[in-house]
Amino acid sequence: MRINIIYDTKYGKGEKISKYLEDQLENENVKIFSVKDTDPDYIRGADLYIFSTPVKKGKATKRMKKFVKNLDIDGVDVNYGLITTHVGGKISTPDELEKMLKKNKLQKKVDTLTFKVEKKKDPLEKGYEKELDKFLKQII
Ligand SMILES: Cc1cc2nc3c(=O)[nH]c(=O)nc-3n(C[C@H](O)[C@H](O)[C@H](O)COP(=O)(O)O)c2cc1C
Q1: Cβ < 6 Å from ligand 1: which residues?
Q2: Of the candidates 18, 81, 69, which has an alpha carbon nearest to the alpha carbon of residue 40?
Q3: CA atoms of 98 and 104, how far apart (whole Å)
Q4: How far is the C-alpha of 72 from the C-alpha of 105, rounded, in Å?
Q5: Is residue 20 classed exposed, middle or buried when 0-12, 13-18 and 19+ CB atoms within 10 A define those classes?
Q6: 29-75 tens-digit pLDDT
Q7: For residue 120, which atom of ligand 1 is closest to its CA?
Q8: Where are the domains of the chain?
């Protein structure tokens, strides 16, 4: 299966999550991209997309929203999974971003996984790998 992982990050959690997933998916055809230096055109053709974004002002990052808005998925039965990290409060990220993903004909394959930390620069809490393993089991 061709899997593209796309992340945004400021303090590193999004990258850590994505690299862990990449390691676990060593038997698949996986590519990992930072939204900061990727054009949506380069990520076409995968069977599954995994997105990871921090929550900013209650939403996905502007960069991630712009990226997803410009996605042009041409296949059928293309799936996605979404992971967010945040410090608390109301999270509207999944709703908003998921509407955009749906508009781009991507099908939600698994419940969105959310990691909460105490302070915005804090690392992921202990046991995050287990949560990601569960996420992967549902999606692959
Ligand atoms: C400008 C800014 C705005 C933020 N707004 C929110 C917010 O509205 N709600 C929230 O739960 N966390 C908010 N955060 C915290 C981030 O979601 C948190 O730091 C995130 O886990 C960072 O992920 P990263 O390590 O991948 O950069 C904000 C952080 C920044 C820098």
Answers
A1: 9-14, 54-58, 85-89, 117, 120
A2: 69
A3: 10
A4: 9
A5: middle
A6: 999 999 999 999 889 899 999 999 999 989 999 999 999 999 988 77
A7: 19
A8: 2-139
Q: Do residues 80 and 49 make contact, with C-beta atoms less than 8 angstroms apart? A: yes
Residue 133 has pLDDT above 90, yes or no: yes
Task: Quote the pTM value.
Answer: 0.96
Ligand 1: centre distance to CA 132 (Å): 20
Is the pLDDT confidence value at 9 over 90?
Answer: yes
Q: For the chain, how big is the Rg over CA atoms in Å?
A: 14
Mean pLDDT for the stretch of residues 134-139 = 96
CATH topology of domain 2-139: Rossmann fold (3.40.50)
pLDDT at 93: 82
In angstroms, rounded to a whole number, what is the distance separating the alpha carbons of residues 63 and 52? 12
Structure tokens at 98: 């998921």
Q: Closest Cα to atom 17, ligand 1: which residue?
A: 86
